[in-house]
Amino acid sequence: MLKPFIKSALALFVLAWLLPNVSYTDWLTLIIFAVVFTLINALAKPVLKILTLPINVITLGAFSVILDAILLWLALYMVPGFSIKPMVLFGFHLGEFLTLILMSFVITITQSFVGIFI
Fold it and tell me: I need a labelling partner for 53 at 20 to 30 A (CA). Which of 27, 37, 61, 65 fits?
């Protein structure tokens, strides 16, 4: 459980450093968000993946991206000091939901990249 926490914390720190729409108030908030995000991914995600398996099969796995965005939103809702603001990408204003989908995808890729070095 420690390795996924470290991967999440480092990935969130790197994203907050690189992207202006990801922010946190202090280090404690970042650590709390990483703990909550890791617990949600470890406990709720496997159960929800099994429950949404028929939808995932029908959409050929595309629903798991939406499920990841929903779990990211849940973690953002639970930790008030961490925020992801809607972003503008190539001149298009993405709403909050599309930003969360994109950020969950970027967080997953960053966690994978950080996992190489840990």
Answer: 37
